Amino acid sequence: MVDATMSEPMGIADTLRALLSRFTSGGGGAGTGAQAPGGNADARRTAQAVAAAPDAEVGGDRVRCPVAVAVTVTTRAGDLPLRGIVIEADGRLVGRTNAQGLLRAQVSACDGRIRLKAIYENQAARLKREEFTLEITGIDMAARRATGGRARNFIPKVQDVFGSGAGGFPGDKDFDDSYSGADLVSVPAQGQGAPEVRVSVKMATLSLDVPYRNQNDASETVNGVTTSGSVLCMPSSAEMQARYWGIQSVATAADGAETRAEMDRLDVMQKAYDRNPRGFRLGAFPRHWQDWTNLRGAMTDLSEAHRAGGFTVNNGPASNADVETIPSGYADRITARVAQGVPVVTSTYATDGHVMIVIGAVVKHDDESEWLILNDPNGTLASVDSIYGTLDLTGSVGAGGANAPADVRAVQEALIRTRHYTGEPGAAINGDDPNDPTIAAIRAFQGRGADGVIDAGGQTMRRLNQRVAEGSSPKYSAVENERNGPTGDRGRHVYYNGGTEGDYRGNFRLKGQAWTSVVEPTTALTVEQIAQRMHPGTYRRQDEAEN
Predict the structure, then answer these.
(1) Is residue 379 part of a domain?
(2) What is the residue-level pLDDT of the chain in tens, covering all 547 positions?
(3) Same domain, 198 and 303
(4) Same domain, 79 and 191
């Protein structure tokens, strides 16, 4: 729980007065400060003030039925403070957390209750938006009590694929975790702290800021042999790992002069070759950098040259089997390493051995890692067209059809892919209007003898499924339009679990301990250091985006 004095060297009252002076219209400024619920500042100025505040602990003026709250936001895995998390109370902006994951403010609780929301998103990093909600009732500051109700962590479309996911195409997946929040709320007893509602928010998302490298952006030449594409996933992942730790390549001239440069995958490949030039062949698998023992040896040599004794290079966590799914105990152990600030390079059965780097996880309240987040150097399964589902309608769609909204959207999405529908997916359909855009698109797809309706399991639905799949490949990296182009970074921040489809449909599998490489500093990172290496939340408001 929050210590009432943890970041208040000048005292709570003084701090709140300073914040009120800084952010409210009563302070003699321009009046652009963020209001707590119950205040009456302009909503747009409120949003702008919250966005502009570097470490916003925002108070408000003219708060009705004010209650002091102290909100700390941490990751569930590792209990690491998260900065930049937007806090709302009853749908109104309160502020966002500082570097310690803390927000103190006053909110309105006239009926003795607050609906608290914490929002974690970072679009620039492709972090998927997570919302934490908590009902707090029975708030009575005189009696020093408040009760936490149901808590929920929700990530819409944590797997965002072709199809709406609500019906028709089952490809999309949400992360939805609800549980009792009774232990997340407390009020200090008399004489044991400030009279405030203390809320401990646990976000399911854990995300390290690991640089991204696209394996397809260029070819590489070692000892006169040029390689490209799938051969480069392993050294590309190792480069991301080295750059995360700031490990530089070191070159020493004949006169002893030393030069340093940012690590590149070619440095990894060349060092792996130099360690054992005759032990592997450059033109066949495994190449020098595709052998895990040799790769770890190369990373050891490179890190030692950068700083002697500064890093160790080892396998990842122990595994009970050669191949593991997500979620599993093995995935949980990988998450535990990431929560220590240590990304893990790992091999998967996304194809027959694709290598990526684990940079985060999505963790349920029972501490199970439901999703792992990876930087995928090949960049597949990352967009709305990443996985082709199979249209499976619950009822008819079109002229005189049942037209369930989820089925209508799924049909529209499929007809967009066949270039017959140009409207918005999810648009309402008028089954009695023969000129309705969706019905017209169905007729255009059907051709001669068209009746403008698609029946569940019928011939038109089967034809549509066939057309949607045309030109696609079952290979992980070659589903239609799924290759990460030379300038693309679509593989940054990709979410996977055991249900993620690929070459082995419905079963995204991790290879075990032997197929991993972990570089870590000899002196473990502190909580503060790990927090600085995580993606912060960044503020974005829908009404701002629209204006």
Answers:
(1) no
(2) 333 333 333 343 343 344 333 333 333 222 222 333 333 334 444 445 444 444 443 444 457 889 999 999 999 999 999 999 999 999 999 999 999 999 999 999 989 999 999 999 998 898 999 999 999 999 999 999 999 999 999 998 787 655 545 555 555 678 999 999 999 999 999 989 889 999 999 999 999 999 999 999 999 999 999 999 889 999 999 999 999 999 999 998 999 899 999 999 999 999 999 999 999 999 999 999 999 999 999 999 999 999 999 999 999 999 988 889 999 999 999 999 999 999 999 998 876 788 999 999 999 999 999 999 999 998 765 444 444 567 888 899 999 999 998 889 889 988 987 889 988 878 999 999 999 999 999 999 999 999 999 999 999 999 998 887 654 444 444 433 445 678 888 789 988 888 775 545 556 889 999 999 999 999 999 999 999 999 999 865 443 333 3
(3) no
(4) yes
Within this chain, do residues 63 and 185 fall inside the same structural domain, yes or no?
yes
Number of domains in the chain: 3
Q: Which of 470, 459, 415, 458 is nearest to 438 (CA)?
A: 415
For the chain, how big is the Rg over CA atoms in Å?
27
Domain shared by 98 and 140, yes or no: yes
| Domain endpoint, select from 312, 336, 356 | 312
Q: Which residues form the domain of 126?
A: 12-149+176-203
Q: Are residues 93 and 60 in the same domain?
A: yes
Structure tokens, 169: 């195409």
Residue 341 is assigned to a structural domain of this protein: no
The reply to whether 227 falls in a domain is: yes
Looking at 296, 312, 328, which one is the last position of a domain? 312
Residues 77 and 110 both lie in one domain: yes
Residue 114: CB atoms within 10 Å:
24
Co-location of 182 and 251 in the same domain: no
Q: Are strands 86-89 and 114-122 parallel, antiparallel or unpaired?
A: antiparallel
CA–CA dist 31, 440 (Å, integer) = 54
Concatenated DSSP letters of 311-363: EEEE--S--SSSEEESSSHHHHHHHHHHHTT--EEEEBSSSSS-EEEEEEEEE
DSSP string over 237-267: HHHHHHHHHTPEEEEE-TTS-EEEEE--HHH
Which residues, 6+ apart, have CB-to-CB distance to 509 below 8 Å? 323, 324, 325, 348, 349, 498
Please state, in angstroms and rounded to a whole number, the distance separating the CA atoms of residues 196 and 71: 10
184 by Cβ neighbours in 10 Å (0-12 / 13-18 / 19+) ranks as: buried
- Whether residue 267 sits in one domain with residue 184: no
Whether residue 450 lies inside any domain: the answer is yes
Token digits for 6?
A: 């943890």
